[in-house]
Design brief:
Helix content: 40-55%
Strand content: 5-15%
Number of helices: 21
Radius of gyration: 31 Å
CATH class of the largest domain: Alpha Beta
Number of strands: 12
CATH architecture of the largest domain: 3-Layer(aba) Sandwich
Number of domains: 4
Structural class: alpha+beta
């Protein structure tokens, strides 16, 4: 969908006025009813497809019956195509019903009603038609009875786009087949008129043979294949846009930002990733009373939150219930990326499941030291950078003037080049901005060959409560010596006491425990294989390299979790997470097509 057509962030935020103690019970009851309807829909769809495909049931109308009713010979094949499309449509509707989409419910009611009538008519010729009609009628009744559970709003522009795209693909297929018939007149039997050719082209879209006869088989096959292909594509594309969930334009209003900043300021036990909720592309859902919030972004039908809810821990259940209610309202799949054990526990109490995803590396200023064998690599890298003439400066963002802030932001952008901006759960997506005065900037200055120096490396860290920092940005010039990043972290830890900082959160190491276990003596074959696959994946994603970089500093490891509703939702959630973090997801060409 076009993001410009999506509702504004203010319109998407829901702030319930009072907590609803029965919300979870109703959600559980609704989930059971929805599962029953979804599986019943799939069963009827499969029965419809099987009864259409197999030779016996396919004889819906005998030649004698068609003749007595005055029906054309193609009516039997047309019935097969219609029943087959209806079965496939029910399978698509079942996917939407699982997300409680109202439009999928409407489609299911219409299709089952039509199937019930069609199967009852088919019962005149075959007894099994009455059984299929009864199954379709029962499903239609079940859909009507459970109407209240299917409340998810559709894409507000989905119906118009579905109609337009269906017409475009159908017209393209019709035009192509008609053109093939027009330019191959010598390969046709007799001299069919324009009306016969147009009728043949229209019928080809549903796989039915028209009045035109061919002298060569390949042209018959070509026109039939081209027409049916465009017809199927038209139905599938239109069905996708008809049933897809809305994907709001990412955005955070000034009011939302102020609310989040107030929650961060009042939090007595802050979360290390809390400040990243201020990313401009995260929408906000507030708990009743506004004492807690969940920040998230919608991608590919997934409402992807990150970290723990913000605010008072006692208000977390209300914020989570409001977040889940918004997901139901829009047909989104709820998911949380990189939350702590405390946050995963809160989400689990709301009915979601959790999976350990990796570990966050945390340094303590009280225990950090360059002494000892484990720190040998960091110690040598730091000494090498000092000998090369580098200096490191550590300052709060509020201490910089506008000119210096702009220069650092321009440098960071130039060092990134054409690469995709990465980071979602642990990135702020802006550099040295005035709205982040408490952020810390660490800059490495190296010789420029002309007697001066210039900035060759940059770290940005955002506040973690009153006495902590979380690493946000880590960049350096492409031609900078190795070890600059290590030197900047060392100088940051040395300056931490003067900044009032007691702890620093570094990068998140994905699947760190699995990589570590795979290196231990006595690790089993499965453990070693999994670690090997993760290292193979490091060719595209920084899995092993990021773990080893963090491990250089001997940090304390804090587990982080992925929260999800059902196991079958995990692939879809991972796709959305990859896209949000800038490591893949839906291809850009596909996104441009969907937004048109």
């Amino acid at each position: 969908m076009s993001r410009a057509d999506a509702p504004a962030p203010d319109e998407r935020r829901r702030t319930p006025e009072a907590p609803d103690p029965g919300a979870r019970g109703r959600r559980i009851a609704g989930a059971a009813a929805v599962r029953t309807v979804v599986w019943s829909t799939r069963l009827v769809a499969l029965l419809t497809i099987v009864s259409t495909v197999f030779p016996g049931p396919r004889r819906m109308l005998t030649p004698e019956l068609r003749s007595s009713l005055g029906l054309p010979p193609t009516i039997g094949l047309a019935g097969v195509v219609i029943a087959l499309v209806a079965g496939v449509g029910l399978l698509l509707a079942a996917t939407g019903l699982r997300r409680r989409k109202r439009r999928a419910w409407q489609l299911g009611v219409v299709v089952t009603a039509v199937l019930a009538v069609a199967d009852a008519t088919r019962g005149i010729a075959t007894r099994h038609g009455y059984f299929a009609a009864a199954a379709a009628a029962l499903l239609c009744a079940a859909l009507l009875f459970n109407r209240r559970w299917f409340v998810a709003r559709p894409d507000p522009h989905g119906l118009v786009r579905a109609v337009v795209l269906f017409a475009q693909f159908a017209a393209a297929g019709f035009g192509l087949v008609w053109l093939l018939l027009a330019i191959n007149g010598r390969r046709l039997e007799g001299r069919p008129g324009a009306l016969d050719e147009a009728t043949h082209a229209a019928l080809s879209l549903v796989g039915v043979s028209g009045p035109v006869q061919f002298r060569v088989d390949w042209l018959d096959d070509l026109t039939a294949t081209a027409g049916l292909t465009f017809g199927v594509v038209a139905v599938v594309v239109a069905g996708y846009h008809l049933l897809r969930s809305a994907e709001p334009r990412p955005g955070q209003s000034a009011e939302d930002s102020e609310r989040l900043r107030a929650l961060l300021a009042k939090d007595r036990d802050p979360e290390s990733l809390g400040y990243f909720a201020l990313r401009p592309d995260k929408a906000v859902v507030l708990a009743p009373g506004g004492h807690a919030a969940v920040a998230h972004r919608v991608l590919a039908g997934v409402a992807l939150a990150s970290g723990d809810p913000l605010g008072d821990t006692g208000a977390w259940p209300g914020a989570i219930e409001a977040y889940l209610a918004e997901c139901v309202e829009h047909g989104w799949t709820p998911a949380v990326l990189a939350c702590s054990e405390r946050g995963a526990t809160a989400y689990a109490k709301a009915g979601l499941d959790a999976l350990e995803l990796g570990d966050e590396a945390v340094l303590s200023t009280d225990t950090f030291t360059l002494d000892g064998r484990p720190m040998k690599g960091v110690r040598q890298a730091h000494a090498r950078i000092v000998r090369a003439g580098y200096t490191v400066r550590v300052r709060r963002c509020g201490e910089l003037d506008d000119q210096e802030r702009a220069a650092l932001a321009e440098l960071a952008a130039s060092w990134r080049g054409d690469a995709t901006e990465r980071g979602f759960s642990m990135a702020l997506s802006r550099v040295a901005e005035p709205q982040d005065p408490a952020a810390v900037l660490v800059t490495a200055h190296g010789p420029d060959g002309a007697g001066g120096d210039r900035v060759r490396g940059l770290l940005q860290l955002v506040p973690w409560g009153a006495d902590g920092l979380s690493l946000d940005l880590m960049r350096r010039a492409p031609d900078t010596e190795n070890g600059v990043t290590e030197a900047m972290i060392v100088e940051l830890m040395r300056a931490a006491e003067g900044l009032g900082v007691a702890r620093v959160s570094l990068n998140f190491a994905l699947f760190r425990a699995a990589l570590e276990r795979g290196e231990r003596i006595g690790a089993g074959p499965a453990t070693r294989l999994w670690a090997k696959l993760l290292r193979l994946g490091s060719r595209w994603w920084q899995i092993d390299s990021l773990y080893r970089f963090n491990a250089k500093f001997s940090p304390a490891w804090t587990p982080r979790y992925l929260v999800f509703p059902l196991v079958r939702d995990v692939p879809r959630i991972l796709l959305a997470a990859l896209e949000a973090e800038g490591f893949g997801g839906r291809p850009p060409a596909l996104l441009r097509l969907l937004r048109r």
